[in-house]
Amino acid sequence: MRTRLLPPTDDGLxxxxxxLRAGGLVAFPTETVYGLGAHALDAAAVRRVFEAxxxxxDNPLIVHLAGPERxxxxxxEVTPLAARLAEVFWPGPLTLVxxxxxxxxxxxxxxxxxxxxxxxxxxxxxxxxxEAEVPVAAPSANRSxxxxxxxxxHVLADLGGRIDAVVDGGSTVxxxxxTVVDARGTTPVVLREGAVTREALGLDAEAAGxxxxxxxxxxxxxxxxxxxxxxxxxxxxxxRAAELAQAGHRVGLLATVPAPDGVTELGRxxxxxxxxxxxxxxxxxxxxxxxxxxxxxxxxxxxxxxxVMDRLRRASA
Length: 317
Ligand code: TXA
Ligand code: MG
Known about the structure:
Elements: E1 4-6, H1 10-21, E2 26-28, E3 35-39, H2 43-53, E4 62-64, H3 71-74, H4 80-89, E5 94-99, E6 114-118, H5 123-132, E7 136-137, H6 152-159, E8 165-167, E9 179-182, E10 189-192, H7 216-219, E11 228-232, H8 237-246, E12 251-255, E13 264-268, H9 272-288, E14 293-297, H10 305-316
Parallel strand pairs: 1-8, 2-8, 4-6, 5-9, 11-14, 12-13, 12-14
Antiparallel strand pairs: 2-3, 3-7, 4-7, 5-6, 9-10
The chain binds threonylcarbamoyladenylate and magnesium ion.
Residues 30, 32-33, 35, 59-62, 93, 95, 97, 109, 112, 114-116, 120, 138-140, 177-178, 180, 191-192, 215-218 line the site of threonylcarbamoyladenylate.
């Protein structure tokens, strides 16, 4: 299969929408990372997503909609909490888990009786979802176990030849995935930390992390690059990188300070949001250039810093 790179023009989006309706696989940009889309109500199309990614079949997909109006077609009950969260955060990087309607194939929900849904905040994603006219199941568009893709190049590196098309929307802005929240009760339960912060959700920012028993994806080995990743305390990252370089390792640094001699500067950031935006691209670059160790300067665990540290810990596990 030849994977087409489609421009985000009327013609490109029409072709992409047509492919999705026909059961094809189309990667597209969102505000967080690139997603690998398939017709969410077409079990055969969704099965192809799992095959292309090499994804465990018990890891459910997020269904993407162009707007909140059609949520009731997927969810058996739109709770008052879900309605309120959708009102406040959609379009945006918040995924709501609700009881699923029977119309949602169980391959889409990883065998669960719940369905995860979000409306992405990206003009190309929204235009494509309008054009497709069907709900679109889309996990991150990487091979399972690789860092999520933030550029069309990352998608092609992992899935070129395995999917029908990629819609080119340039680099994604946020860089870490959506926050996944169980919205069946009266208060949101965070299943995966993400771009919408606990503070924004009105939750205790000091609470323990996501619940791995309830969000199947967080159990699997996500975000695991081929090189070693080490998280260093602020102030200690450059020295640790220099020490590893002196010991003969090929080392890259992601920090708020310049890289010392003998260390590759993978990226300089000012705050947690800056690190989020460059993290996955930096990990891929480190792999591509044969670095053995990436030293990343840790960030404070509030705001988006929680999601970033969650991803860094997984990458370093
Ligand atoms: O930002 C994002 O969320 C991106 C873009 C493309 O939208 N998508 C994404 O999808 O990160 P994925 O498949 O890589 O991660 C989906 C997460 C997994 O941890 C999965 O287990 C969880 O959402 N999830 C999906 N459906 C669920 C359900 N019914 N119950 C609990 N967790 C669910
Ligand atoms: Mg993923």
